[in-house]
Amino acid sequence: QNPKTSAIVKQLVAEGNAGELQKYFGSRMEFGTAGLRAAMGAGISHMNDLTIIQTTQGFCRYLEKNFSDLRKRGVVIGFDARAHLSSGGSSKRFARLAANTFISQGIPVYLFSDITPTPFVPYTVTHLKLCAGIMVTASHNPKQDNGYKVYWENGAQIISPHDKGISQAIEENQEPWPQAWDDKLIDNSLLLHDPYATVSKDYFKDIQKQCFHRNINKETNLKFVHTSVHGVGHKFVQLAFEAFDLSPPFAVPEQKDPDPEFPTVKYPNPEEGKGVLTLSFALAEKDGAKIILANDPDADRLAVAEKQESGEWKVFSGNELGALLGWWIFTCWKNHNRDTCAIKDVYMLSSTVSSKILRAIALKEGFHFEETLTGFKWMGNRAKQLMDQGKAVLFAFEEAIGYMCCPAVLDKDGVSAAVITAEMASFLATRNLSLSQQLKAVYDEYGFHITKASYFICHDPKVIQQLFDNLRNFDGKNTYPKSCGRFKVSGIRDLTTGYDSSQPDQKAILPTSKSSQMITFTFANGGVATMRTSGTEPKIKYYSELCAPPGNSDVEQLKKELDELVNALEKHFFQPEKNNLQRKTE
């Protein structure tokens, strides 16, 4: 019933444009553990009013099956600032239609009245003890995209088998229920609640448990620049700084207000490197700020840059910031917990494609480190399990600039990560240390961990499948490569098939998933490289790392060795020319 998407379809029918209609209606968006992520537009392959109604009807029926007290507890729904003029879709509209679906079934809905960071949804689920949460966002995807992200009652993103169950329920509930389109009905409903004020207040109170140096914060001369890259982060990072008694960061004026067009950047993703930070660098130079904090548009990720002595700017990789925050959060914990026995219940987590620096710190300091599959859905669920057993999960991170610094949010959170980074930098400044110098000190103490990650773009699933099939049948059927250029392969773990050459029974310990590709190669020189497909973008990603024991300080040699390994990986395993793969460009 949306006049805009309806008109698009009628126009294509009138033109007899079977090719475009096939694109719109050929296959339904797949609901996976990350929920939905697709372009806004007409048809069942896109995000629009109808597909949101269908998805929410399925999710609603699935929740009814799983929670006898759903009508007492309810769900939370949040949204970012995305909008798509030509199809009439927007995050706010989708959130209201989703709320209407639940309310029509007598289920209470805590719908934020305004845009919020993604982490506010998982926070609200646990804080208000709700059954589930929905966040309408496409995070840092291109502007035409939107998404529908789902959290379970434990405050973590869903994992299997919930995705299959919800997907099945969507299939069974495709016809819109009576009044499904009339979102105005919710405005006078007693089942509609606005958690915005309470949650804002309580969230900022909860993250203050991670504030350890209030006096230093009050007096620091360090200046920060913050950009929310046309997303939701501005107001919330300002409030977080206030909660920590830090002077507010300078906000990049052209990027501080939400704008669904993302006019100043090619991609609204701070992970893409210096291009996204051009305006931040200019403002920092003008105002004499040493550190830049950049959130992605839904403020669940954080990139950090620091001005070096040379005048150059260093943008920290996700692994480098993970090393710094891991060191910092453990140091703060240690200074406040004199009981040496307590360390046996302390945990840190990172995903299997992230740097193993936390493992090195854990080994030396005596706490536990665990790795999980890629993505915060795994770290969030594992953290909750550990917390339920009385363990303290201090920190979790993934190399894609995602950090969980505060146990009140079981997902990545760019707001708390920004303010905790600012406190760490302010503390280090009192010791005349920069973040870069401290990072080197961490590596000196726990061993250098050099990492390099990138990706190739490939829009053809057949090519991707063929590339991974070739790796699994490299020298004849069911044989993996024994070398990559001059680098000898010493171990293989394939989390698509469940094979792991290092295990006595050759079975991988981490869960396997046939629906995504992921192979990890260990090399005789101590290098590790993983190749995997992305769940939300048409990319084949790779991650590589060389670790040295403490005391080996020939960093340049390590970097050179890793560069050569990565070149060999691209040449022999990706074969970009043969497979027509497009390289990542700055």
TrEMBL record:
One Pfam family, short name: PGM_PMM_III
InterPro entries to which the protein is assigned, alphabetical: A-D-PHexomutase_a/b/a-I, A-D-PHexomutase_a/b/a-I/II/III, A-D-PHexomutase_a/b/a-II, A-D-PHexomutase_a/b/a-III, A-D-PHexomutase_C_sf, A-D-PHexomutase_CS, Alpha-D-phosphohexomutase_SF
Disulfide bond among keywords: no
Location(s) in or outside the cell: Cytoplasm
GO molecular function: magnesium ion binding; phosphopentomutase activity
Domain of life: Eukaryota
Cofactor(s) for this UniProt protein: Mg(2+)
GO process annotations (BP): glucose metabolic process; purine ribonucleoside salvage
SUPFAM superfamilies, sorted: Phosphoglucomutase, C-terminal domain, Phosphoglucomutase, first 3 domains
Record has Cytoplasm as a keyword: yes
Main localization (coarse): cytoplasm
Span of domain Alpha-D-phosphohexomutase alpha/beta/alpha: 29-175, 202-307, 346-446
Keyword set, alphabetical order: Carbohydrate metabolism, Cytoplasm, Glucose metabolism, Isomerase, Magnesium, Metal-binding, Phosphoprotein
GO CC terms: cytoplasm; nucleus
Assigned protein family: Belongs to the phosphohexose mutase family.
Protein name from the UniProt record: PGM2 protein
Annotated organism of origin: Centropus unirufus
Organism phylogeny: Eukaryota, Metazoa, Chordata, Craniata, Vertebrata
This protein's encoding gene: Pgm2
